Amino acid sequence: MNSLILTRTIVLALIPGCVWCGVVPPLQARDVALPDQQVAEVTKLLVGTMDTTAQARANPQAPSVRMTTCQIQVVGAVDRPQAVFLYQEQALTDQLTQPYRQRFLEIAAVQMESALRVRSLTFRPPHPDQWIGLCAQPPAQRVVQVNELGQPVCSVLLRPQAGGYWGETPAEGCPTSVRGAVRITNQVELFPAGMNTWDRGFDRQGQQVWGAESEAYQFRRN
Fold first, then answer.
1. Residue 29: is it exposed, middle or buried by C-beta count within 10 angstroms (0-12/13-18/19+)?
2. What phi and psi values does residue 53 have, to the nearest 5 degrees?
3. Which range has the top average pLDDT, 69-73, 157-161, 215-219?
């Protein structure tokens, strides 16, 4: 069986349910895919507009949030020719012109021990206000200088799973200073219909102060 047939064989429809039950999904045969193929797949799954409107309708305690992601051109990133750069912002659906989170993402293939992974590296822009609504601009105008990306603050390593990709932050999390938290962790599942995220903030005592609790944030494509 050639690799293409094998890949198609294992790509099954995603079954909703408990995807974060403490068990890391086993390696799939798709781990052998070419690096640029995996980067392109992750990029395609991230780009676009998703929201949690359906979740908020079903659960009044869940916020209604829109996440918008688009590909950008970064000028000066000569040392990362194979990377894809994205801009992403999140806002409450009734305050779309006032995003509460903005970030740049670098999507690139990295070698982890004996396995290939796709890394989503997050940058926090030093002047976020200037980028509000960037994804509404024509692609040719989405140009960012490399020194405008800001400092890298966190990374998620993604691995193929049936129908998409699964990933998480390092076990120790990433530093933050948002709403009383000093450390943030996240688990992410990407699939064609959207993504599930378990975004959580912890204080210095290790107590969770915000973020997902009994269920993931369920972003779905419009």
1. middle
2. -60, -45
3. 69-73
56: its two tokens:
């908020």
> Residue 51 region, left (φ>0) first, then alpha (ψ -120 to 50), else beta?
beta
Q: pLDDT tens, 163-207?
A: 899 999 998 889 888 788 999 899 999 999 999 999 889 999 988
Q: What percent of the chain has pLDDT over 90?
A: 63
Structure tokens at 26: 């086993």
Dist. CA 200–CA 142, nearest whole Å: 30
* DSSP structural state of residue 212: -
Map residue 38 onto helix, strand or coil.
helix
The DSSP secondary structure of 40-77, one letter per residue, reads HHHHHHHSEEEE-HHHHHH-TTS--EEEEEEEEEEET-
Of 217, 190, 152, 165, nearest in space to 47 by CA: 190
Residues 6+ apart with CB under 8 A from 148: 125, 126, 127
Distance CA 70, CA 143 (A): 11
Buried/exposed code over 70-83 (b: 16+ C-beta within 10 A; e: otherwise): bbbebeeeeeeeeb
C-alpha pair distances (Å), 158 with each of 27, 39, 87: 11, 10, 18
